[in-house]
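Progress report, Aim 2. The chain analyzed during this reporting quarter is listed below.
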Amino acid sequence: MNAIHEIENLRQRANEGDPEAQYNLGWRYSAGRGVPQDDEEAVKWLREAAEREHAKSQNVLGMMYSIGNGVRQDYVEAVKWLRKAAEQGLAQAQYNLGTMYVIGQGVPQDYVEAVKWLREAAERGLDQAQHALGVMYANGQGVLQDYVEAHMWWNLAAAQGNEEAREKRDIFARMLTASQVASAQSRARKKMEEIHDE
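Predicted structure tokens for the chain:
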């Protein structure tokens, strides 16, 4: 199937109400893949899918409101869509929502609520969330300050190639005893097994 037929087929399925097709068409307009780049058209299709409870569309739509792509920037609207996706278990949306709580955009700043959403995403294996959760533990934001727990989360993120987490882990390892580092590493291995078993 050539690119023109593929887009026509996608548009037909999107017009028939297929949320996955609507998401894909919205993504294509956002990125300019096979169609002219058009953020407003992207928002139109992403909203169609988001209203049909398509979690990825809800997440992307939320981020478009957060940034102001194709829509007027509106953090409250961003949080609304991110929450819908996060409640469906989409790790990227949980991370994005947690970040909104960390910085207080669209919601009052609330570190406890931020940790809740970051933990959800981190336990689903999202390295960005693991890194962010490590920061929360290192700073004692929303949780008791715990460098061993921070090291554990950074260890998990670093194992997935997250360089910021690796750097923080290595810096904080110098402040821990050998037994604390060993404990963090053991906990990280156990947590990794739990993540992969789910």
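The radius of gyration is 20 Å. The domain at 101-198 is CATH 1.25.40.10 (Serine Threonine Protein Phosphatase 5, Tetratricopeptide repeat). These observations will guide the mutagenesis work planned for the next reporting period.
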